[in-house]
Amino acid sequence: MPSLTEAELAAAIDHAILKPELTRSEVDAELDVAAQWRVFSVCVRPSDIAHATERLRGTGVAVGTVIGFPHGTTSSAAKAAEVRQALADGASEVDMVLNIGFLRSGLDAEVEADIRAVVDAASGHVTKVILETSYLDDEQIARGSRLAERAGATFVKTSTGFAGGGATVEHVRLMRASVGPDVQVKASGGVRGLETALAMLDAGATRLGTSASATILGEIRAIVAGESATGAQDDSSY
Predict the structure, then answer these.
(1) Which domains does the chain have, with CATH numbers?
(2) Catalytic residue from among 186, 202, 234, 235
(3) What is the pLDDT of residues 104-140, one digit of tens each?
(4) Would you call 79 a catalytic residue per the annotation?
(5) What percent of the chain has pLDDT over 70?
(6) Three-class HEC string of the chain
(7) Is residue 157 annotated as a catalytic residue, yes or no?
């Protein structure tokens, strides 16, 4: 039996609805999946925030969005403006992409200032900083995590899911080890099944970004149901 319940796992999931080609009806279908499985939140495209907020009203599912997505190269002023609009439209959390090229260049002050601009614009709302770990070496991942912490971020996050690589257990562990206990870790990109989801949580993630929420939660539901049925059969044999 998994070490956590379906509800506990659902509470760790941000259901990603970010593909650029999604139609409104496809977005609605994904929003309904999020509501059906009672995940913590959806992470939607900025243009979908107001619609998602209205459709999910009363479901208990929060609405988050992305900032500077997916490349992180927009100006700090543009990212801050995106945050203010996102909050006005109903978002309660923001996932920003840091300036990856600046981080790789060793421009730490610029990276920290960019993150801080978003944190300040978020005015106390949860801010997650996407490092895009597939482009970084271990030193850059650790340094980027520390810069996010210094800038006041709530989470460090592995990936956008759009860079040809995703979360790995090793990177989640490294990020967890690089920040203090007040900063959480989000594993995102390639989390498509229960085994991977549980491995990321075991490595130190407290939130999972995935578009496979129904698959992951369906797996844990089936396991629990199967083991419960087996237990009932065993009980009846005595």
Answers:
(1) 6-233 (3.20.20.70)
(2) 186
(3) 999 999 999 999 999 999 999 999 999 999 999 999 9
(4) no
(5) 95
(6) CCCCCHHHHHCCEEEEECCCCCCHHHHHHHHHHHHHHCCCEEEECHHHHHHHHHHCCCCCCEEEEEECCCCCCCCHHHHHHHHHHHHHHCCCEEEEECCHHHHHHCCHHHHHHHHHHHHHHHCCCEEEEECCHHHCCHHHHHHHHHHHHHCCCCEEECCCCCCCCCCCHHHHHHHHHHCCCCCEEEEECCCCCHHHHHHHHHHCCCEEEECCHHHHHHHHHHHHHHHHHHHHHHHHCC
(7) yes
